[in-house]
Specification:
mainly alpha; single chain
């Protein structure tokens, strides 16, 4: 019988022997072996890391956040932190912190509040004025202010839920696939075991891509939110 799939999200999950964990680990190791030749070349690894930093930096520079002191560096560090935590949660029996709202909501809330506080402190009249779209009818202004205020207030919630939901779904799928493959492999032959490891390895590589995309989307949305910050000339 399969264990409760949500048990893989518990911080106190047992580290005892489990065939599903072994299959999960085999897929994780297999994915690392596939990219091992790339990381052996030190210069290639440097170019890859530099390319990632450049993509994130260019993303931030396309928004108003480029005018804030240290915002670009902060966003790059935020991206690296989220990506590292996402990848760390992929390791079997390691607690995936980015799959829980207790971290993602607080992280999103701190970043969002910093932008809001900075904008309203810098020029609160301009910040209030952004709640009313240009050319709005006078009678609709109260309703538009309410709608814009709600849309701004729910931003940290959507940021945190989006990251946690996508990472949690990936962990659950790894747990489910590992459990089914464990039952399949336990009653089959060597070829079936090899096939199971290949399937798990392929899905682990897919989750690597998801981990990168979720960190990128998080930074992208924060950068877009920075465009609401008034920038004086």
């Amino acid at each position: 019988m399969l264990m409760d799939i949500f048990s893989s999200l518990d911080a106190g999950t047992s580290l005892g022997f489990s065939l599903s964990v072994v299959i999960w680990l085999s897929g994780f190791v297999g994915a690392l072996v596939l990219v091992n030749s790339f990381w052996v070349d030190y210069s290639a690894g440097n170019l890859f890391v530099y390319a990632i930093f450049s993509v994130v930096a260019d993303l931030v520079k396309a928004c108003s956040g480029k005018f804030f002191g240290g915002f670009v560096v902060g966003q790059v560090c935020l991206f690296c932190s989220i990506l590292f935590l996402n990848l760390a949660g992929m390791v079997p029996s390691v607690f995936g912190v980015t799959g829980h709202l207790s971290l993602t909501f607080v992280l999103a809330g701190v970043v969002w509040f910093s932008l809001i506080f900075s904008g309203w402190t810098y020029n609160w009249t301009r910040s209030v004025g952004q709640l009313v779209p240009t050319g709005s009818p006078v009678l609709l202004i109260p309703l538009l202010v309410l709608i814009e205020s709600v849309s701004v207030l729910i931003r940290p919630l959507t940021l945190g839920v989006r990251l946690a939901a996508n990472i949690t779904m990936g962990h659950l799928m790894l747990h489910v696939i590992g459990g089914y493959l464990a039952e399949f492999v336990s009653g089959s032959f060597m070829m079936s075991s090899l096939f199971g490891s290949v399937v798990m390895g392929g899905y682990v590589i897919f989750e690597f891509a998801v981990s990168f995309l979720q960190a990128y989307v998080f930074v992208l949305l924060v950068s877009l939110y920075s465009s609401d910050h008034y920038v004086g000339h």
